[in-house]
Amino acid sequence: MPVDPVCAREVDLRTAHSMKIVDGRGIYFCCADCARAFMAQPQKYEDLNSHMRLTIGVMGSAADDEPAQARKTAFELGAAIASKGFVLITGACPGLPNEAARGAKHLGGHSVGISPALSLHEHLYRYHSPADAFDVLVYTGSGLMGREVTNIHSSDMVIILGGRSGTLGEFAIAYDEGKLIGVLQGTGGITDEIERIIDTFEKDTGAQLIYSRDPEELVTQLSDEYETRHFRRPSCFCDAAAIGPG
């Protein structure tokens, strides 16, 4: 369990009073007094390395022919994620997700690729996917569609950009499982249709959508929303209303 840095008590994610994101790490508090003490003197609690970093999954088109502007925006998105201290997760594919991974690496961030392959050899030569922008590759052996579930389950927050049917599948999983989802508008593909698509769902899963055309603004808004409210959904399908104060 996470440990409250003020009182050193273990904190159950389902009943935490509140949380604060510091350099991409989730800091959880057992009560209002501990939260206030931390916020009054955050510099007093310097050793926060034991707290896990949160993850942002980037899902988008793997095509090699995406417009230059979309590739640039994806690169900027990865850089924005790294600048906030979050760990980037992608499906370890070419295209826009790889540009995001390159952007994170450019800023010295951490990125994890969830590969459809059984090994690096299969990743490179069967799936023709890149490996040079990742700190870690996780070999699922699940194929292109199977690894999508692992992508979403491993992401505290999800961002979609561009994308076609595969990205739509990842979005559907994230939506059904009540994730906090960012939509990077202006990148083409299904991102231009998401608002219209969800109007047809008539299904409240607890998922929260945030829209922006600016990568840095989108990451900031996701971080703020997660820190304020969405951290109360620590697992798929949990009842956020029943697990802690609003």
What does this molecule look like?
This protein is α/β, with parallel strands linked by helices. The chain has two domains: 1-52, no CATH class; 55-231, Rossmann fold (3-Layer(aba) Sandwich), CATH 3.40.50.450. 34% of the residues lie in helices and 18% in strands. It is built from eight helices and nine strands. Helix 7 (194-198) links the parallel strand 8 (180-184) and strand 9. Helix 5 (143-153) runs parallel beside helix 6 (165-176). The two termini are 21 Å apart.
CATH topology annotation of the largest domain:
Rossmann fold
Q: Which second-level CATH architecture of the largest domain applies? A: 3-Layer(aba) Sandwich
- Helix percent reads 25-40%
Radius of gyration: 18 Å
Question: What is the name of the CATH class of the largest domain?
Answer: Alpha Beta
Termini, distance in Å?
21 Å
Describe the sheet with the most strands: 7 strands, parallel
Order of helices and strands: EEHEHEHEHEHEHEHEH
Inertia-based shape: globular
Instruction: Name the strands of the widest sheet in spatial order.
Output: 6-5-4-3-7-8-9
Mean pLDDT, all residues: 92
Given helix and strand content, the structural type is alpha/beta
Low-confidence stretches: 240-246
The structural domain count equals 2
Query: What fraction of the residues are assigned to beta strands by DSSP?
Result: 15-25%
